[in-house]
Fold this protein.
Amino acid sequence: MENGMLNEQGPQKARSVIDIRGLSLTFETNDGPVHALSNVDLDIREGEFVSFIGPSGCGKTTLLRVIADLEKPTGGEITVNGVTPEEARLARAYGYVFQSSALYPWRTIADNVALPLEIMGLSASERKERIARNLDLVNLGGFERKYPWQLSGGMQQRASIARALAVEPHLLLMDEPFGALDEIVRDHLNEQLLKLWAKTDKTVVFVTHSIPEAVFLSTKIVVLFPRPGRIYDVIESDLPRDRTLDIRETPEFLKIAHRVREGLRAGHSYEDS
Ligand SMILES: Nc1ncnc2c1ncn2[C@@H]1O[C@H](COP(=O)(O)OP(=O)(O)OP(=O)(O)O)[C@@H](O)[C@H]1O
């Protein structure tokens, strides 16, 4: 089963941001080759919120890292904003949010957000303005002088999102940013992230293990399969873009969640349990 329901509301006509054709990546290891990705085709358009979901080891993080030019593919084609991932990285085309917040404990929240801006060579006044604006966007205004260890896990992740946003990329790459948080905090951050997405009109690529998270957030859900890592299903969501958590009780939501679960079941092996 590949390529599903067509989305009448989706941004089909929008500009292509990520274009992937026949992409493969094989890691050579002491135990032989690991086919992390095999023959992946994917088109991500401006303004979409795309989630990668699949069993452990199916290549979700690897695919995100290829987009970010943190891994080189061994076959196929990929463009990001119409150029190579390396050119896109050098042009600071994306912000990257890691699984753990990856904030520097010896820097205040403001100084953590400032770091990429210092590397970009922005002036002190421009840095200050961007720090304030992006901390406000994630509701962390007033926490500039705190150190990461003085904040909760959810606040730390919001700070790392502010840091990724501060370079003002149109593309946000997020690798399980809320995976380590409890469900209530995760729900709250999911809502905030959707609001932020609506407000800033970014393209988001988001890795998750959670079906409700993927369905709640996404305009498109990509279900991956392991050994070798490949795309099993692409689901274009027909949920309205403007959503609140209540939508999770609706038949439309449950229908999509069911289809994602079917895909995950098909790709799951009991070795993973
Ligand atoms: N640097 C590496 N060297 C060798 N093998 C690797 C490397 N990085 C990833 N792999 C392998 O590639 C496959 C895909 O890994 P990846 O981390 O992308 O999966 P994932 O779907 O993100 O998994 P998880 O959900 O557990 O984070 C796995 O079999 C993994 O062991």
